[in-house]
Amino acid sequence: MSSQKLQLHEYFLRFLFPPRCICCDTLLPFKNPMELCSDCRENLPVMHKFEHRTPDGTNIGKVYCVFGYEKGIRKAIHNLKFSDRPGNAATLVDLSYSYLERFFADNSVPFMPLPVYDIILCVPMHPGRKRKRGYNQSELLAERLARRMNIPALKKVMVKAVNTPAQSALGKAGRFRNLIGAFKVKAPDLVKGKRILLVDDVMTTGNTLEQCGKVLKDEGAIQVDAFVVAMRRKLSG
Ligand SMILES: [Zn+2]
After folding, report:
1. Could you tell me the distance, in angstroms and rounded to a whole number, from the CA of residue 204 to the centre of ligand 1?
2. 116 and 65 share a domain?
């Protein structure tokens, strides 16, 4: 939920479902501007860099990320994925964006307050897994980021055709092999010649983003950067 004034429907929703902190689940005052308690806000695992360069020769240009995959952010992402808390997606994006917005403003050239992308895409989830969970958390994150950046988020452009084991269950070599050939572009016309911002929840080794970036570049995307809510801090450089 953004820090803007509450809309009527939001009042109604908060009456039915009192707001709770996305990190520690504490019940919050009715008018709390964001679903985050003051303790968790003070202890957010904010990284010292928000724009992370990837090695030359990879298919992802850079990765925007504000948080380390730690503390309350780790809990909020875990609950988003495994405890049926889809609303956490909007709060996580709003939180990240409040930092990124200042970062973009400080580093932008005049009249170009935001980096330029044509479309936002999410890392797709296999349809079977999405049915089971009820939603793809990366799609919810992409939709919220699209609203904040005023760039269209397109669905069904890229799909995950193979239901691979979860990356988190595998070692380094397994993670790399696991995803080869897993992603397919279904609508190449929407990708060709485009500057794309790809969205995911967590970056661990970067293999998932890289495999998505590869199929998008193979279909003629001219630039693929990424936004993730959190990354393992040792990778943040
Ligand atoms: Zn909290």
Report:
1. 24
2. yes
